[in-house]
Amino acid sequence: MRLLLTALAASVCLLNSCADDLFSATVEIPFPEHEPLPALTLDVRAGDTTLYYRITMSRGILELPQAVELSADFSLTRDGAVVDSFSSYISRSDAFNGQRLLATPISPEMGSYEARLRVPGFAEVVARQTMPTVPVVTNVAYEPKGALDGNGDRVDKLEFDLMDDPATEDYYGFRTVLPPSSASIWYIGCANDSTGVVTCDTVYQQDLRFISQASPDPALKQSEGYGLVLTDAAFTNDRYRVRMTFNNYSEGEVELEVYHLTEDAYRFGVSKYAYLDAQGNPFAEPVTVHNNVENGYGYFLLSNVLRVELGK
C-alpha cells in the first residue's frame, strides 16, 4: 500500500509540474498606503512650567524621513483662555521635541483644555482633555527592605489608601522617584533686538531618577510615564489599598508621585509600555499606541499629581 501511494503521488507531481516543495506558496501582502497628516504630541501635567511638544508630519512604515517646508500655528487654551500659542516651522518628518516656557504653571484646578494645530493644506488638528482633580491618599506606610521580590531579594514595601469618587470613572498612576542627580539647561525663545543683543528664556530641566515598581496586586498594570496604573473598576467602595514594591538602590530619599489621569493618558501609558515591551520579539502581537488627535496623529494628555515624601 505504501509503494502504491508513493507512486501515485509521484505521478500526480509529474503531471502537474510540481516544484520540490509540494506544499509551498508565495503570498505577497502589500503595505497599506499612508496618507501623510500633521502629528502632534503634548503631555501636560499640573504644575508644569514648560510645555514639551512635538509638531511634525507623519510617515509610512517603510518611508525614510523626508524634508518638508510647512508652517504650523499652535494654540493651547483652558476654558477658552489662551495658555500658550506660537508659530512653528516643519522642516522634516522626524522633527525633534520642542520646549516652551509658560507664563504661569499649569493649574491643578479642574478645567477644559483644547489643543489646536493649523497646517496649511490640511484639516485643523484638534485634541481635548479635562484636568482631573488632585488625587488624595491617606495611611501611607513605607518600610525599607520590608518585602521580597520574585528572586528572593529584599526590596522596599509601600502601601497607602487611595480615595476615590464612586460617582465618576477614574484612572490613576503611581511611581517612585529619587532626587535629581543633575540638571540640563535649555535656552529657548531666543530673539535679536535692534542692537544685535540676543535674549533667551532659560529652562532648567531636572533629571529625575525613576525607580521601577512592581505589585502583587494584578489590578495594577505597568505603563510608560506613570509607573503602575489602575482604574477604579477594581474598587468596591470609595477607597482602595494600593500595594507596591520597589528597589531603592541608592538608599536615598524617595518621593511617591500619585497621578490622577485622564482616560487617554491611561490608555496611552499602557499601550506605549506594551509597544516598547514587544520590540525585538518576533512572536509578540503588534501593538497600536493609543491616539486621541482628530485629523492627525499623536496624543494630548493631561494629569494631576500629588507628591509624597517617603524619606530614606
Secondary structure topology:
Elements: H1 2-15, E1 38-45, E2 50-57, E3 67-78, E4 81-92, E5 98-101, E6 112-118, E7 125-130, E8 136-148, E9 154-163, E10 171-192, E11 198-211, E12 213-214, E13 221-222, E14 228-231, E15 239-246, E16 254-261, H2 263-278, E17 297-311
Parallel strand pairs: 1-17
Antiparallel strand pairs: 1-2, 2-5, 3-4, 3-6, 6-7, 8-9, 9-15, 10-11, 10-14, 10-16, 12-15, 13-14, 16-17
Strand content: over 45%
Which residues sit in consecutive blocks of at least 5 with pLDDT less than 50? Answer: 1-10
Task: Supply Rg.
Answer: 26 Å
Largest β sheet strand count, sense and barrel closure: 9 strands, mixed
- Our count of helices gives 2
In N-to-C order, the SSE pattern is: HEEEEEEEEEEEEEEEEHE
Helical amount: under 10%
Euclidean distance between termini CA atoms: 80 Å
The overall number of domains is 2
How much is the average pLDDT?
85
Q: Name the structural class.
A: mainly beta
Number of strands: 17
What overall geometry do the principal axes of the alpha carbons give? globular
Describe the structure.
The structure is a single chain. The protein is mostly beta strands and 312 residues long. It has two domains: 38-130, Immunoglobulin-like, CATH 2.60.40; 136-289 and 306-311, no CATH class. The chain is 10% helix and 50% strand. The chain contains two helices and 17 strands. It has helices at 2-15, 263-278; strands at residues 38-45, 50-57, 67-78, 81-92, 98-101, 112-118, 125-130, 136-148, 154-163, 171-192, 198-211, 213-214, 221-222, 228-231, 239-246, 254-261, 297-311. The strands form three sheets. Strands 1, 2, 5, 10, 11, 13, 14, 16 and 17 form a nine-stranded mixed sheet that branches. The chain has a four-stranded antiparallel sheet with strand order 4-3-6-7, with no helix packed on it. Strands 8-9-15-12 form a four-stranded antiparallel sheet, with no helix packed on it. A hairpin with a 5-residue loop joins strand 8 and strand 9. The protein is globular, with a radius of gyration of 26 Å. Residues 1-10 have low confidence and may be disordered.
